[in-house]
Amino acid sequence: MKSSHIALVTGGSRGLGKDMALNLAKKGLDVILTYNNEKEAALQVSEAIEALGQKAAVIQLNVGEAKSFDSFFLNLKNTLTETFQAAHINFLINNAGIGLESHFEKTSEEDFDTLMNIHFKGAFFLTQKALPFLADGGGIVNISTGLSRFAFPGYAAYASMKGAIEVLTKYQAKELGERRIRVNVVAPGAIETDFRGGAIRDNAAANKAVASMTALGRVGLPEDIGGVVAFLCTDEARWINAQRIEISGGMML
Ligand SMILES: NC(=O)c1ccc[n+]([C@@H]2O[C@H](COP(=O)([O-])OP(=O)(O)OC[C@H]3O[C@@H](n4cnc5c(N)ncnc54)[C@H](OP(=O)(O)O)[C@@H]3O)[C@@H](O)[C@H]2O)c1
Hints:
With about 250 residues, this protein is α/β, with parallel strands linked by helices. It contains eight helices and seven strands. The structure holds NADP nicotinamide-adenine-dinucleotide phosphate.
């Protein structure tokens, strides 16, 4: 039996990460997904992946706690051996994250550090420590935001961390090219998820405002994103490298 490639999706229990995990499985990949608090939700996603005929496993991870990464990778190593009879993953999707709205003038050092630890330091060192587990010829997909291209009041800190991930993507692609590892960054526009307490999904006025700024006339859905990320983890995407791919329906053109 031909063994499947394995993708590790951080924050795969809900929202965009869940849709990425399901689409990866639909494309024939096995998936390891992480959750921070919502273990039940993560287990439901892993069951759905198994129902699609692929292997799945869930591991707890707080991406904002870099000190916990060594024990996370010990868990990953055991999971790879026991559940997948494998030593490596083929793709890493750095998706886990939180939204935090705060105007530049009012952003506290504490909020800045929270965003920095999750969105930049976390993704930086998680990827660094993942390298021995990442197969040559594999790939990394980082998740940014449309807010790195256009300025929307209230997101100076959040969008700056995402901007940093976009720069990092280029350096990773350059330095990991010798291992044939491709690194791309996907930048979703505003998407209806639990993000920021479901602000875009549940607030009709905010939803309408975003729709009116979007060429295709609506807010994005998780289903608009996962398939693109999954495509980047296929052989058809083998020559796509160091790219920022915005998926926003044409927001703020
Ligand atoms: N939604 C949008 O409009 C939008 C737009 C552009 C970019 N993004 C980016 O897309 C990514 C996913 O967002 P989403 O909308 O899917 O959010 P979401 O629905 O709130 O889901 C967040 C996911 O990340 C996990 N997570 C949260 N904090 C974590 C931490 N400290 N350590 C590890 N995992 C953590 C959650 O795990 P639990 O379920 O265990 O809590 C959950 O799986 C984020 O990087 C976000 O910045 C979102």
